[in-house]
TrEMBL record:
It is an enzyme of class 2 (transferase). Gene3D superfamilies: Aspartate Aminotransferase, domain 1 (3.90.1150.10), Type I PLP-dependent aspartate aminotransferase-like (Major domain) (3.40.640.10). Belongs to the class-II pyridoxal-phosphate-dependent aminotransferase family. Histidinol-phosphate aminotransferase subfamily. Residues 43-338 form the Aminotransferase class I/classII large domain. Its cofactor is pyridoxal 5'-phosphate. Keywords: Amino-acid biosynthesis, Aminotransferase, Histidine biosynthesis, Pyridoxal phosphate, Transferase. It comes from Myroides indicus. Pathway: Amino-acid biosynthesis; L-histidine biosynthesis; L-histidine from 5-phospho-alpha-D-ribose 1-diphosphate: step 7/9; Lipid metabolism. This is Histidinol-phosphate aminotransferase. It holds the Pfam family Aminotran_1_2. Its EC number is 2.6.1.9.
Length: 345
């Protein structure tokens, strides 16, 4: 990439003098803290560590990446929003999004007044390599989002396509790896250092089973991290969430066991679903969900809902499809039984 990061940042952000939180200058645990207007009483009376150091140390070890490259957000939606705010001038810069994909890239683009260029993935849900060359030269595009593996399709985007984008695009590339713990061999994290314009987003919400804690991870060069830290809300991750997440991350064993179970169940749900005559296609998946094409997805969706089985109707993006999350054995049995009943009607 020819551009320096500072030359890509919005001037409002470059010129911003950030809020200095009271606790940033003093990191010792024991002191007479009369600086932040906290109450001296109560269980959670003190503001949390604004930079989540303990949690970052843990993540640094698990992900094998330096703390100087880690940002922690209130869910991964927070860093997605922040990328727009740091790099995209409203009503001027554009974002490139490959459809069908995760909806929040468009939502945050709209909130931040950023125009979207949609490029459709081909029928194998891959990026069309011919269009990449042209799009990567488009000076108006400031940002490219790639969801890998992609939601709702469950597919891996060809590494050659991603590499081509990283090598030819002269601005920021975001790879959203929300489901990467189900297929870690496809992560771009080991190559982060090669690409100063790359931001990799992950989350503890999916494979790690901590959706309720709202912990999103973003990995990037220290040059970009500087601006994330500059604009972040001072205490964006609560004390309770920092502590709980650090604790749960210690149990690698349970994490690996759960992933194994989910993978076994995914294979079973796929093979049971493929047998049904109401089903026309089950897309291959690298994640904990499967995209299933039905003869009549709406009918199946409504029938499942009436039996209190909630799946995601993705038919507006990909005709006649439902996205089904793989649950535990019992949940999957309920789903399969119900689908079999519908198959016989
Ligand atoms: C679930 C999901 C996220 C959001 O995760 P949170 O960390 O819970 O905000 C981000 N990207 C994709 C593609 C997802 O599917």
């Amino acid at each position: 990439m020819k551009n320096k990061i500072v030359n890509l940042v919005r001037s409002d952000i470059l010129n911003l003098s950030p809020y200095q939180s009271a606790r940033e200058e003093y990191t010792y645990n024991k002191a007479c803290f009369l600086d932040a207007n906290e109450s001296p009483y109560g269980l959670y009376n003190r503001y949390p560590d604004p930079f989540q150091n303990k949690l970052k140390i843990k993540i640094s070890k698990i992900k094998n990446i330096g703390i100087e490259s880690i940002f922690i957000g209130n869910g991964s939606d927070e860093p997605i929003d922040m990328v727009y705010r740091i790099f995209c001038n409203p009503r001027q810069d554009k974002v490139l999004i490959f459809n069908p994909t995760y909806g929040m890239y468009s939502v945050y683009a709209a909130i931040n007044g950023v125009d979207i260029i949609y490029q459709k993935l081909n029928e194998d849900f891959q990026i069309d390599n011919k269009s990449i060359d042209i799009l990567c030269q488009d000076k108006e595009i400031k940002l490219i989002f790639i969801c890998n593996p992609n939601n709702p399709t469950g597919t891996i985007i060809a590494p050659t396509s991603i590499e081509k984008i990283l090598n030819t695009f002269n601005s920021i590339v975001v790879i959203d790896e929300a489901y990467i713990d189900f297929c870690p061999e496809y992560s771009w994290l080991p190559k982060l250092k090669r690409y100063p314009n790359l931001i990799i987003i992950q989350t503890l919400s999916k494979a790690w089973g901590m959706a309720g804690l709202r912990i999103g991870l973003a990995f990037m060069s220290p040059d970009i991290l500087y601006f994330f830290n500059k604009i972040k809300s001072p205490y964006n991750i609560s004390e309770v969430n920092q502590r709980e997440a650090t604790e749960i991350l210690k149990d690698q064993c349970e994490f690996q066991t759960n992933i194994k179970l989910i993978k076994q169940e995914t294979i079973r749900v796929v093979s049971e679903t493929e047998k049904l005559s109401i089903v026309t296609k089950v897309y291959p998946t690298q994640t904990n969900f499967i995209l299933v094409e039905f003869k009549n997805a709406q009918r199946i969706y409504d029938s499942l809902i009436s039996k209190q089985i909630v799946v995601r109707n993705r038919s507006s993006q990909i005709p006649n499809t439902l996205r089904i999350t793989v649950g535990n054995k019992k949940e999957n049995n309920t789903l399969i039984q119900t689908l079999k009943q519908l198959d016989n009607e």
